[in-house]
Amino acid sequence: MKPSLKSTRLVVISAWGSRAVAACSMIYSLRVLSDSLSAPEYATFVIIMGLAGWFALMDLGIGYAAQNAITGRLAEGSTAASEVLSAYLILAVTTSVMALALYVFREPIAALLFGKILGDQGPLAGDTFFRSALLLTASASFAVSTKVLYAMHRGYVANAVAAFAPVVGLILLALGVTSAQDKVAYAIVALYGPNALVCCLLAVQQIAKAARQRPDLPKATFFDIAKAARGFLVFNVLGAAVLQIDYLVMSQRVSSVEIIQYYTIGKIFSFVAFINQAVLFAAWPTLTSLYAEKKLDEIRRQLNRLILMSAGVTMAATVSLLVSQDLIGRFLAPGTNLDIRSTVILGFSAVALIRCVTDPFAIFLQSIGRLTPLIAFAAVQAIVSAGLQWQLAEAFSIEGVLLALFLSFVLTSAWGLPLAARKILAPHR
User: I need a surface site. Which of 63, 66, 196, 263 has the fewest CB within 10 A?
Assistant: First the structure.
């Protein structure tokens, strides 16, 4: 089943709408957090949120593997009930193991992460870390339900969830964070709990629907999903080592106020990335189908359009932020006296622009299951990124972190991924 142009546009438009709603909610939540948390509490919250990309790995790559498997089944005109049930059964086991491990190691992890921010109180944040980590781990597993929706070309439903949950989260945050005993954990549960709950309900509905079809569950299906997931997991771990190591480095190298500034500007650029990624993920099944039909010229045109569109969105956002930078700190973080620097905005912009080049090619390679070049370049980039961030953060604070990220792309993925994709799309193939 090939996605229609109408359904693809609906997914993209609904994604943009949901991101706009989510952006407004999250931006205002920054103001609520600034007024309600002390600087050390806010920095602790930021570090945990900075690890969200790592917790997103807790599905162990099963989400993307299941998405491709379901898309393939539907393209053949078959039912995908076996793939749906197999994916969720694997997740039930892996999530339970992860939750146990997080509980056992909560205190030493908290001491490592929050020692610079909270001093001797760092290890005491173990319970706060565990509550937050447990929710984020469960969220990653339940989020597989949205990938199932994308595989079935119903991504607009996932986007509706993405619009609904942040609004509820903002309301819960505003109503209860000031009176909460554990303000950091409450803030994380308020902001991310509604999305986790809705995704859980979607997962239950998908499991029930698949179970009613009484499909066979051959071992081969489990092994196929697990084997495919392994490649996605390795790539995603390496990707996190490139893009999510920043908060780990900052927790050891820079001050609380600098961490808050990085998070504030980073959140704004993350919504720019969400806009671009909404289009990329909507294009995923289309690219899979086009490659299966050997329409290589159309794939090349799609990739060029994706690069130009995302670069335009990023440039518009950068100009807007530079014009309004004096207002950002006063509006988004009134309780911290932030002085937003132009160099920080330009640093985030440079990283975002170079990702406009690399991300479309990365999505294409994932959509056809060609993970080897992704893994190879991500492995090198992770080492380069971590080493540069550790050194440059000490010398140049958060600008050093951003410079390290930019250089890691320039030296690896910015030329490597387009080269790998174009070899696959060469006319003689």
Answer: 196
Element at 327 (helix H, strand E)? helix 296-332
- Please name the residue that has the structure tokens 């050390």: 40
Structure tokens at 364: 């294409």
With H, G, I as helix, E, B as strand and everything else as coil, classify residue 182.
Answer: coil
H/E element, 399: helix 372-411
Question: Pseudo-torsion of CA 156, 160, 163, 168, nearest 10°?
Answer: -160
pTM: 0.73
Q: Which of 3, 57, 8, 2 is nearest to 278 (CA)?
A: 8
Q: Which two tokens stand for residue 40?
A: 């050390």
Phi/psi at 101 (nearest 5 deg)? -65, -40
For the chain, the distance separating the N- and C-terminal CA atoms, rounded to the nearest angstrom, is 24
Contact 334, 28 (CB under 8 A): no
From the list 199, 193, 163, the residue with the least C-alpha distance to 177 is: 193
Helix/strand/coil for 4: coil
What is the Cα–Cα distance from 133 to 225, expressed in whole angstroms?
25
- Nearest alpha carbon to residue 313 among 285, 271, 281: 271
Cα 87 to its chain centre, rounded Å, is: 20
Please state the rounded mean pLDDT for residues 73-81.
73
Q: Are 151 and 66 in contact (CB under 8 A)?
A: yes
pLDDT digits (tens, 9 = 90+) for 165-199: 888 888 999 898 888 888 988 999 998 898 888 88
User: Phi then psi for 245, rounded to 5 degrees?
Assistant: -80, -15
CA 319 to chain CA centroid, nearest Å? 24
Q: How would you class 423 by CB atoms within 10 Å of its CB: exposed for 0-12, middle for 13-18, buried for 19 or more? A: exposed
Instruction: Give the Cβ contact number of residue 78 at 10 Å.
Output: 12
Maximum Cα–Cα distance across the chain: 66
Q: DSSP string covering 6-73, please?
A: HHHHHHHHHHHHHHHHHHHHHHHHHHHHHHHS-HHHHHHHHHHHHTHHHHGGGGTTHHHHHHHHHHHH
Q: Does the pLDDT value for residue 429 go beyond 50?
A: no
Query: 62 with 147: CB under 8 angstroms?
Result: no
The amino acid present at 6, given as its one-letter code, is K
